[in-house]
Amino acid sequence: MQVPRITQPQSIPVVGTDAQLPAVSLHRLQPDALREHFSGAQTSWTPEIQGDGRLQDVPTREASVLVPLVQRDDGLRVLLTRRTDHLHDHAGQISFPGGRRDPEDVDSVATALRETEEEIGLAREHIEILGQLPVYTTVTHYRVTPVVALVQPPFALTLDPFEVAEAFEVPLAFLMNPAHHRRHEVQFDLMTRQFLSMPWHEGEREYFIWGATAAMLRNLYGFLRHTPS
Predict the structure, then answer these.
(1) By the 8 A CB rule, do 79 and 151 touch?
(2) CA 48 to centroid of chain Cα atoms
(3) What is this structure's pTM?
(4) What's the pLDDT at 85?
(5) Which of 12, 37, 102, 119 is the most buried (most CB within 10 A)?
(6) Which H/E stretch holds residue 219?
(7) What residues in the chain have per-residue pLDDT under 70?
(8) Do the bridges between strand 142-151 and strand 136-137 make them parallel or antiparallel, or are there none, so unpaired?
(9) Quick one: three-class SS letters along 46-63?
(10) Under CATH, to which class is 14-225 assigned?
(11) What are phi and psi of 114, to 5 degrees?
């Protein structure tokens, strides 16, 4: 059965939040703690959300995104982008920098670094790779590997105007608090589709983080809460 595409996620009812779950402690959101956690916890952890279904039974394509954690004086912040409105896939949505794997890319990290530099002009010299989260399969047939990295300022961004409308930052502590994880649910004929959103308000602007981006952030939450055995 094909999974129906959601085109207006803000209109889908919120059925609850996960405020009953604990936030990731601020100690675990420090650069040194993240380095240590990524060095030892990955092999014994399974993500909560492995994908959001597929629209059609067609081959998937490999892709990578960078999850950039910018080291600011007030704590780590996640660098996100808003895609331009004319794109074929995920137009206008909030996303991580990244894209499909090219034949010359030696691995998922190479794809994430190349795509990040092409999309937002973030130079590799500012990026320290921490590790990878498990692959996430999207409804648009991509197998996405999230590559988590620390980013050291100062740096300048140069946005690709065809793909990226703007770049902005959200405090990692906000995103790692399940009280801000909203659950949506909608019925399509005999199928129920669920997804998460994590809206971020900056002044009068709302950045509606949802879908695959929110799911990968939720998996990052689960990973950082996990204690290696």
Answers:
(1) yes
(2) 14
(3) 0.93
(4) 75
(5) 119
(6) helix 211-225
(7) 1-4, 41-44, 53-57, 86-92, 228-229
(8) antiparallel
(9) CCCCCECCCCCCCCCEEE
(10) alpha beta
(11) -65, -50
